[in-house]
């Protein structure tokens, strides 16, 4: 009958949010992002951000023997980098891999202290929030005079910026939006990123985050990268656009009070799929998917480490 179920659900959530019926976790996080003193969903202040990035740079100096900086407030850089802000606290290995890729390519990039959160929960429940967050990105991009917007390993952050930034922030004149996987894959294809083909010997599988895979946007790029430095890549079935959701999609991963439902019922099919793959690592390049799948592995008793794509890339990059 031509009914768009996604649109109906989206509008229904919007209406419910306007009358005060919305998940508390999303409301609290977004209130801090739009009205709070830190301006981001994890309430990370700038001093804590800077301290953590300095610490990560020191770690990489020790591990790789090379200086790998996190540029801050660099005006005129090519890319403004916006990961899910939770990465700054919980995904150190992913951030290290992101920085290492840029160190290898030599391209200019920056993290802005005016705004540094790619998360946009408005995609899940309220178009007003969606628009306000996108304008925060626009203002930071204009302040630093960057040429492109680069979103980190986060499915919904990437989708909300890629598909809605032009709608609310300039139309055809809006800055281009890329996901970090696209950038890394392009640099590798151009020969500007060298990888050790034997870097990872353990079995590795890949989980397709719904927000970047179901539109057919980012599907083959991560697989090509993984096969370039993993000796034992194992695929899951079904996959790509038909992939099984992590079980915490559409923002429900943020609602900890329904964790038993998410991991024992909603995520059971995904757990069975990962268990059948028998991999040591499951790459899930999405902040929400990582949280859900780690809880899923714990509650379902599966011995599989959930990592980001750039966690493993960090181990494989060959620096000239």
* Count of alpha and pi helical runs: 15
What integer is the average pLDDT? Answer: 95
Oligomer: single chain
CA distance, first residue to last residue: 58 Å
Contiguous uncertain segments of 5+ residues: none
Please give a structural write-up:
This protein starts with a helix and ends with a strand. The radius of gyration is 19 Å and the shape is globular. Strand 7, helix 14 and strand 8 (305-307) form a beta-alpha-beta unit. It is built from 15 helices and 9 strands. The chain has 2 domains: 5-188, no CATH class; 192-318, Rossmann fold. It has helices at 5-18, 24-35, 46-64, 87-90, 92-105, 122-125, 127-144, 155-168, 180-189, 210-213, 220-229, 259-266, 268-277, 287-300, 309-316, and strands at 79-82, 109-110, 148-151, 177-179, 194-195, 204-206, 281-283, 305-307, 317-318. Helix 7 (127-144) packs across helix 8 (155-168) and helix 12 (259-266) crosses helix 14 (287-300). With 320 residues, it is α/β, with parallel strands linked by helices.
In short:
With 320 residues, the chain is an alpha/beta fold.
Give the key terms.
320 residues; alpha/beta; single chain; globular; Rossmann fold; 51% helix; 2 domains; four-stranded parallel beta sheet; three-stranded parallel beta sheet
Give the secondary structure arrangement, pairings included.
Elements: H1 5-18, H2 24-35, H3 46-64, E1 79-82, H4 87-90, H5 92-105, E2 109-110, H6 122-125, H7 127-144, E3 148-151, H8 155-168, E4 177-179, H9 180-189, E5 194-195, E6 204-206, H10 210-213, H11 220-229, H12 259-266, H13 268-277, E7 281-283, H14 287-300, E8 305-307, H15 309-316, E9 317-318
Parallel strand pairs: 1-2, 1-3, 3-4, 6-7, 7-8
Antiparallel strand pairs: 5-9
